[in-house]
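Reopening this ticket.

The earlier resolution said the output was attached, but the attachment link was broken on my side. Pasting everything inline this time so it's all in one place.
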Amino acid sequence: MAKKKTTTGQTSARMVMDVLKKHYAFTPDTAVGYDAFKNLRLSTSVIAYTIANLMETDVIMKTDDDRYYFVEKNWNKVVHKVNFAYVILLGLPIIILLIFLGIQMLMS
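Inline output:
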């Protein structure tokens, strides 16, 4: 199996989530501290901002002792919402075009 490498094309969110997955941080018991992110090629402020954004959607959860873990189920919900938005953005113009063409055919 090919191993993912950190590339310039990766988002900071993906990089942060990959660290949590690599450390198997999926529950409060297996959560990792902030030092787990020290090898990322991101500034501290970018890492903090990314973690905060992912915490807003409950993709990353914080324990009482300031450790972090990844919640796959919540990530899948975010992905589903994004995919749905893309379908709407791409599908709506096509539907409007078909309605417009249908009206033109009826009027001619």
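Reporter confirms the inline version is readable. The first helix runs from residue 12 to 22. The mean pLDDT is 90.
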